Amino acid sequence: MKEKIISKASEMFLKLGFKSITMDDIxxxxxxxxxxxxxxxxxxxxxxxxxxxxxxxxxxxxxxTIIQMNYNAIEENFKIRxxxxxxxxxxxxxxxxxxxxxxxxxxxxxxxxxxxxxxxMWFKQNIQKxxxxxxxxxxxxxxxYVKFYYTLIFNINENxxxxxIAQKLELEALEYHTxxxxxxxxITELENQLLNPTx
Length: 199
Hints:
Elements: H1 2-16, H2 23-30, H3 34-40, H4 44-68, H5 73-87, H6 96-103, H7 105-133, H8 142-159, H9 163-181, H10 184-194
Domain HTH tetR-type: 1-59
Organism: Flavobacterium gillisiae
Keywords: DNA-binding
């Protein structure tokens, strides 16, 4: 039952936001009593924390799956971007990440600490992969470009309340990041990805 509550809560939080969903809402949606939820979670903060842990795990497992598909470095980034767009497409207008930061700052800080570490590792692997295949310039300072990119992405998510605008800015940041690193071959691949209507 605990796992079912976490799963339903994560679905509702993503769709309608961390602030607006109450324990009553979750109980009503699951046709159980609020008392049943409190049996496993003494307060909403604990449920939010467990939910963000589950979402973090699911996102990172999906990213690992995409990486294992062995796309080229640029296509890989666009596939990951598409995965995020699909995951958050039914979200309320207010970005879930923005809401988490605003209403549950301690939980947000914990999530971000893990995110920065793991995303930095992926960004670095992606840049090295792109250099090896000739899509990114060989003279790049990899660590600097990793910092540039995660600073861009996390600032967009932290400071943009609208999920729709955040997604648009993230796509523009991905294009900016790729153009800054790309060789002529990489620019051609980037243009192909930008023409893809599913992104």
